[in-house]
Amino acid sequence: MGLLVQVFKWDQRWRLLHRVDIVLRRGIKKQAVYPTKLAEVGRLVEARDDRYETGQLFLHRIFGYRGVILFPWTARVYDRDLHNPSKISASTTTTASPTQQHRTKETSLRVKANTSSPPTATTAPAGDTPTSAAYQSDAPGDAESTTNVGTTTTQVDPKEVKGKVQTFYQVLIDTRDCPHIRAQTEAVTFLGNQDSNRSLYAIPGLDYVAHEDIMPYSSSEKSPLQHELFDKFLTHAPEADPPFVGQDTLKAWQEKNHPWLDMSDVHKETTENVRITVIPFYMGCRETPASSWRYCIRLENLGELSVQLRERHWRIFSLSGTLETVRGRGVVGQEPILSPRLPAFQYSSHVSLQAPSGHMWGTFRLEREDGYSFDCKIPPFSLESKPDDLGPPTPATPSTHDKKRDDSD
């Protein structure tokens, strides 16, 4: 009897193994229909501590796309990281001198509004502009809850965050990788001068990358990157290192568009292991006295549990004396999940003020996979106007690279 029971057990195990073998064979056959193809694009080279040169090929450390460096920028990074204990020692909080307060008067402002008149609550559908600030909705079709707080006064936080100078790069993204990365591939926008309203235009495939996110590699191909501007801006020079050098067209385009491409300040803050990075850019004036900016935001999950962005809550202060509150679901019509496998998401949006300058700050409402919800701080950043006497931006190639965007984003 014991022998029969043992034989029965072995028979059951054999059937189970046979089923597993069938499942495996089916899985292999299914993969064979859609095989994964790997191809060598180049060879990684040693990372550098000093600045990379124009023409350097690279992989993005976070988003993984292939790109090439066009030219460097020098930016002052304000890293708050007050809510991540492991980062506190890395960010210095000091009381600034009067000179430093003048230089960074808006970069570390936290506004405490004292209303002199009762606040008036209004609801504006997406695409409508509030009376005090023409705010560009992140999510198209989303109804924005807008509160216009009358005349306000501001108090400067006595603790200033000391900025650190770091190198960033203007880069071209390989168009083959654009559909697969979690970042807008039209992050660079500007106000065209084709009509009286100065419509919003975008240049596809441009991005800003921090030095530490550059993973340099080399390639023997004459055109290793697929982008319409690659051959227009760069030329192959086998004897050079890197073997691609900038053409006169790149230098001329950079000089002409410097005011709209220039990045000067970067702001970072970490809450509950989620780091928010903000880079603001001045775009010019649509109509006097309204001034417009774009801002690029990256969310990065530094923890082990996945989180999902649910809501945004912005506060926009204009030096005309008004404070605007904007709430909405998600960003740019999405509620991205930041997981350990896909930890980052990047997007751009726009804002206009009826004043030459102001500042913004806010929170993102995030929900962790274990059900815990929290507000992640968006560090305050200033919106500073620049002289508009340099003429309209020059697109790289108006017929193909200058893509018109709708203001509804």
From TrEMBL:
Domain of life: Eukaryota
Record field: compositional bias (Low complexity): 89-99, 113-134
InterPro entries: ApaG_domain (IPR007474), ApaG_sf (IPR036767), Hemimethylated_DNA-bd_dom (IPR011722)
Spans annotated as Disordered: 85-157, 378-409
Example GO biological process: error-free translesion synthesis
Molecular-function GO term, any one: DNA binding
Biased composition (Basic and acidic residues): 400-409
Name recorded for this polypeptide: ApaG domain-containing protein
Annotated PROSITE patterns: APAG (PS51087)
Domain ApaG: 268-390
GO cellular component, one term: mitochondrial nucleoid
Family annotation (Gene3D superfamilies): ApaG domain (2.60.40.1470)
